[in-house]
Amino acid sequence: MRGRIAHLSTVHQSWDNRILNKECRALSEAGFEVHLVVSAEQDRVTHGVQVHAIRRRGRFARLLVSQAEAWRALDRIRPQLLHFHDPELIPMALAYGRRRRIPVVYDAHEDLVKQIETKPYLRGVAKYLARAAAGRLVQMADRRCDAVVTVIDEIADTFVAQRDGDERPVVVVKNLPWAADFPAREWAAGDRTVVYTGDISVERGLERMLDAVEVADARLVTAGRCLVDESRLTSSPRVEHRGLVPPAELPGIIGEGQVGLVLLSRLPNYEHSLPTKVFEYMACGVPFLASDFAYWRDLFGGLDAGVFVDPDDRGAIARALGELLDDPERCAVLGGNGRRAVEDGFGFEAESVKLVALVERLLTA
């Protein structure tokens, strides 16, 4: 083995796509001994990764009880490097790294401060205090972590790439799909099925999707965590909600669709995000219908793999969806373009090389 690595999360699911299926899997396939300490039902081995189960708890219990349980699990593993994924773990992870004298890597999945803006339950003074606390946490990670991994250049730019005159790695590992895991859709006459995968909320386009499939006479298949009253989905005869599913089931679900939807609201954390589901739709050869964000258009516009639409124009969304569903031949062309783009470099195969190189560098420093 090339080294013993521990990944840590008390917030994410035990089969989280980025953590387990991408980063941990990539390191295991590269020959490292990889452990994942995470909330789970039981210990197991997946993709060669040893998953160590800790109990899932509520937000406040996580801050004390779960972190103490995670610390004990790490002591049993005795890692040579700790890579953690939750902002609330920043103080604990830094303390563990200092105590055990091992390098610590913070994985910034999102811009934490901007993310506060998308929380509908935070208003006024509460939102101000949450932003301030988030800023202090990120500053702590920036100053003291041995490396930072993140998903897009814009988030990487918020971290300092030098510390005390020395280079400190800030590495972008994009949240792209493994191309090999996503078989391309076989195209035939369309059955007017559209798909959406990921967290389901008003901000993420729930009402837009429901309106669009009604007007376009379509069927909507959803898979993901429902952050609103689930009856909003189940009460519609046009919607089939599969719930939260393991990553291995996503390719099959996406492949049922003639179009994949990504109709997010115009919020700062969304407008400058790297939409994983768009890449997954492309990997399956399914065209996307996405919010017309400038960042997304710059990223995907030249690929001719989908259609952009104003997320605030319900009529335009329905018309664009109807036009795609009425033209399966066009969908096949757009989907094929997306699949080729993933095969040519928009896959996690290339991103894994950067992660492995970072770990090798930190272990030999």
UniProtKB/TrEMBL annotation:
InterPro entries: Glyco_trans_4-like_N, Glycosyltransferase_grp1. One of its GO terms (biological process) is carbohydrate derivative biosynthetic process. It comes from the Bacteria. GO terms for molecular function: glycosyltransferase activity. Pfam families: Glyco_trans_1_4, Glyco_transf_4. Residues 24-175 form the Glycosyltransferase subfamily 4-like N-terminal domain. Keywords: Glycosyltransferase, Transferase. The keyword Glycosyltransferase applies. This is Glycosyltransferase subfamily 4-like N-terminal domain-containing protein. It comes from Luteococcus japonicus.
